[in-house]
Amino acid sequence: AGWRWGLSAEHRAALGMPHCGPQNSGDFALQRLCLGYANGDDSHFSGIEAYGEVGGLDAALLGPLGQLLEKLEHWQHVLVEFLVPGRWGEAARNLLTDFFSASDDDDEALLQNLEEALRQWLEDCAAAGFDEALPLAVFRGAWLEMLDAPDLGRSFLGGGVTFCTLLPMRAVPYPLVCLLGMNEGDYPRRSPRPDFDLMALPGMARPGDRSRRDDDRYLMLEALLAARQEIYVSWAGRDQRNNHERAPSLLVAQLREAIRDGWPLALEERTFEHPLQPFSPDYLSGKPGLRTWAREWYPSPHSAPENTALPDPAEVTPRSIRELLEFFRLPARAFYRQRLRTDFNEEDPAEEDDEPFTLDSLETYHLLEDLLRAAEKNGPDRVAERARAQQRGGRYPLAGMAARTAAALLDDITPVLTVWQEIRMEWAAAPQRQAITHAHGRILLEDWLPTLHQNSAGDLAFVQLRASRLLNKESQKPEGDKLAALWLQQLLANAVGLRCDGIVVGRDVLVRAAPPPPGAMAALDDLLDLWQEGLCEPLPVTLKTALVSLQGKNPAPIYDGNDHLPGEVRKNLNLFRDYPDFAALSSARTGLQRRGFAEYAAALYRPFADWLETLEWQAHP
User: Fold this and answer.
1) Is 64 exposed, middle or buried (0-12, 13-18, 19+ CB in 10 A)?
2) pTM (predicted TM-score)
3) CA distance 299 to 285
4) Measured between alpha carbons, how far is 524 from 3 in angstroms, rounded to an integer?
5) Is residue 612 over pLDDT 70?
6) Which residue stretches, if any, does this entry annotate as coiled coil (predicted)?
7) Rounded CA gap, 94 and 101, in Å?
């Protein structure tokens, strides 16, 4: 609903930012939610744009959300005051009551510890006769310090595992002593002295002065003597970047030399090198000293060998045009999504940490797409109203930047709408939609074609409005991946006996495509055959990389990326799992015919590449 930061306009004013107003605050979002629940979506009242995603049983969450905002607003006023200790104690108990409720024994113990720490602090203040007003920072520090203070009444080393830092003359016998992180440079520890420390000057040292490096040498000996049965020493034996061997601490190296001098074989038998990754095959190889308790890394005794294709689906499931387009663009992703019902490319729900003052390319695209859909549905005259709705919904930057953003978007979209109106005057929407049912092999395609448009001569065409730029900046030709949907729609229309032109109004150019050639039916059947094959294993090919290869250029930078281009594999974890780089992609062989990247590129995308060469385009005035 657009809550980014701040509770309300008053809260922002208290933070020294009164000009930001209420937009994208908590109160702003709550009003949008309540108005959307009351009036539904696509409505506004008193400058508030409704957010209609909440309905039914979810509406019960609006009450607790409103109570939360009310309590936060209340405590925001309370916690900025200076209070005496007694008032702070009362406020702290009320705050715990308002916001925390124990759900298990650990929570109950934590709340009891907080209450005990607060009681002890109040008793100390009373005993000292302290009754001055304090700010929140002082009270908070004192309260939490009391919570973290050690309890001297507890038993020493009551059992279990003890984590500690060794100190001189504190050695206590243990059955097992573990020394962790004994890396070179980390132990013995360095003790840098400031420039003004006179004890660091030559000749100023006196007997009894502490030396951390000497203490650490002594501590190493104490740790050895404290171990009654076994001692465990670990260090980072290899560099995490280049896997080069790294030496241990000098004291560990001296210990190893002493063991080697006395018992040469014992040192090798008791030195274990652990792999870096927890899924390393060495942990499952049965080597002495290497084991894992992570059951998920153990292969199932009935699992299929790696890189084995799945059989054809047992049932013929109706497929949609969207699924066909997904396969056409990225066959590997289609395999995981459509056959295995999984996807490694989970969207990151994390929000931005900084308030945006300008829109990035992705957000600009989404806003333009929203404006274009409003133009398609309600006509170009309603675009300005939709832009105002976007602003009321908090999708623009704050304050005066919002007006500048709206003006920039409308200026950007005006040429597109001008061309769109001219096209719509020539091509009117057909009265009926066209259903398509096409079966080939074990693929059954059932869907509806997009809305067809018809001119005065009776010709049919797909007329589409896009918010993206269609021309490639370097080649100044239409980008294939942005026109793949139009190509497939023309093929499917041809399959039901309709010859349709294609017209795409992009953000920068108008693209026209003639109907497919007579052999388009064979191209569609070949595509469905490859789709059926791609449902059994991820095919080593992608649309963008294949088109560059078919042009006779080097496709590796398109797939792997570089400093300026992210590359297809970096954008899709489905690809990275099977083909982490172009070398792996080009060397893979799949299918019954054991075809590779070059063969799949020609079979899957050659007709599409030839179709791209027939396109005509014209820049917007």
Assistant:
1) exposed
2) 0.70
3) 12
4) 47
5) yes
6) none
7) 12
